[in-house]
Write a structure and sequence with these properties.
alpha/beta, Aminopeptidase, Aminopeptidase i, Domain 2, 2 domains, 9-stranded mixed β-sheet, 6-stranded antiparallel β-sheet, 13 helices, 22 strands, 29% helix, 23% strand, binds manganese (II) ion
């Protein structure tokens, strides 16, 4: 027999690396955890990503003067929730760019426009969940509150509470098992409704001074304590909460998982794991041949809608500006040629095979955590519905780029054929005519408050995006 591997098999990254490479993977994991801890919402992810880019010599497009030239590093943000970073390549732009596209929004609990309620002398928060969650995940855990409030005077007040160990947190109290007889007979989808996800906000009534106001007793006295604190701390009145975006997310930081510290458990790894690894890959581009583009989109978890989501024209709009700044060309035809000749990795997570729930996967085609970055030819559900389904020729190209750069990669599929499924931004990128394939990190417990990634896969994702940017 020759040395050719006739049979396809996954390679466990850890069994392949030497001590020095293992140290590199662990170090990268530390940087990644720091990013996750600072990026718990899409706004925070865009902020911390912009700082990272500025630190690496990128300039905001709006601050650039004159013509852009090969090697220039620029970025722009869209409504503080989406970001595009570009390193201008040496080849003509109409020949296309290499794009890595991830998303920075994650499932969470959003506050309703009028969130503060009082019941049974407890103040609670009314929420409306965002994205695909299993509702029971969000009970009995510490939640932190992140976001902004735009006050009546136009001033934007940032709020982050619950991250510092000395901060208070919020939490949704669950039903005690002693009284859960009726609940235990319900279907999981019926146990909790969206309206049930109401964290505790306070329990101390505000003392109403009857002599000074001489009016009738306030009904919502506990709620008044909360409003009083919001006013004295942030200068906020209840109406200000209508022009606010406040999100509840798990209050815990990213942690190592396992005796061997090989995994990371954290909230929001879908899809900040691909955002971070994409960032690390693009900051290392100095003079690529093909222009390198990193896209961090918003709203993926609710269908990529809105002007910060991938269904908008944000990519084409920004790339038209860049085309103009590099070449002076305003032609729509040249823009279309550039977009069509481009190629993309839709950088998003896939599901790793979880031994606790192995029967939802078809084993030969399921990704395993620790076996490298996952290439997913198609996503979708119910017969590939909604899938981009990458062309074999493009799969071949990406595979050869990764193999020639000694990147450990694996193939993945999102569960058994009839089990369900999901989508990514891949099909929206392909609408421009470019070739796209999904490529990212396999997670266990995806969309839970504690998603698990292998540090080895995080590192391989970074290396795969870097190799893709480098490719001609
Ligand atoms: Mn995702
Ligand atoms: Mn998701």
């Amino acid at each position: 027999m020759n040395s050719l591997n006739l049979k396809y098999g996954r390679t466990n990254v850890w069994s392949k690396v030497n001590e020095q490479e293992k140290e590199g993977i662990m170090r990268f994991g530390e940087d990644y955890k720091r990013y996750l801890n600072k990026a718990k919402t899409e706004r925070e992810a865009v902020d911390v990503s912009a700082s990272l880019l500025i630190g690496a010599g990128f300039s905001e497009i709006s601050k650039m003067q004159g013509q852009l030239k090969p090697g220039d590093k620029i970025f722009t943000t869209i409504n503080n929730k989406a970001l595009l970073a570009v390193v201008v390549g040496s080849r003509p732009l109409h020949e296309g760019f290499n794009l890595v596209g991830a998303h920075v929004d994650s499932p969470r609990l959003d506050l309703k426009p009028q969130p503060i309620a009082e019941e049974e002398e407890l103040a609670v928060l009314r929420t409306h969940y965002y994205g695909g969650i299993k509702k029971y995940h969000w009970l009995s855990m510490p939640l932190s509150l992140h976001g902004i409030v735009v006050r009546g005077d136009g001033k934007t007040i940032p709020i982050t509470i619950g991250e510092n160990p000395s901060d208070p947190v919020f939490t949704i109290a669950d039903l005690l098992p002693h009284l859960a007889k009726d609940q235990a007979d319900k279907k999981m989808s019926e146990v909790y409704t969206g309206e049930d996800l109401r964290p505790l906000l306070g329990s101390m009534p505000l003392k109403v001074d009857k002599e000074s106001n001489g009016e009738s007793k306030e009904d919502n006295v506990v709620k008044m304590t909360v409003l009083d604190i919001l006013h004295s701390t942030y200068g906020i009145i209840e109406e200000d909460l209508i022009s606010a975006e406040l999100q509840l997310v798990p209050a815990w930081p990213a942690r190592d998982v396992g005796f061997d510290r090989s995994m990371i458990g954290a909230y929001g790894q879908d899809d900040r794991v691909c955002a971070y690894t994409g960032l690390r890959a693009i900051v290392e581009q100095s003079l690529p041949q093909r222009t390198a583009v990193l896209l961090l989109a918003d709203k993926e978890e609710i269908g990529s809608v809105g002007n910060t989501g991938m269904e908008s024209n944000l990519l084409a709009n920004v790339m038209a500006e860049i085309m103009y700044m590099v070449t002076g060309n305003e032609s729509g035809l040249t823009l279309r040629r550039m977009l069509t000749n481009s190629r993309a990795l839709s950088a998003d997570v896939n599901a790793g095979l979880n031994p606790n729930f192995a029967d939802v996967m078809e084993k030969d085609n399921a990704a395993r955590i620790g076996c490298g970055v996952t290439i997913t030819k198609y996503t979708g559900s119910g017969g590939k519905k909604g899938a981009n389904d990458a062309h074999a020729e493009f799969m071949g190209l990406v595979r050869s780029i990764f193999n020639s750069n000694k990147i450990v990669w694996q193939t993945g599929e999102l569960g058994k054929v009839d089990q369900g499924g999901g989508g990514t931004i891949a099909y929206m990128l392909s609408e421009y005519g470019m070739n796209v394939v999904d490529c990212g990190v396999a997670l266990l417990g995806m969309h839970s408050p504690m998603e698990i990634a292998s540090k080895a896969d995080v590192f391989m994702a970074y290396r795969s995006y870097k190799a893709f940017f480098d490719s001609m």
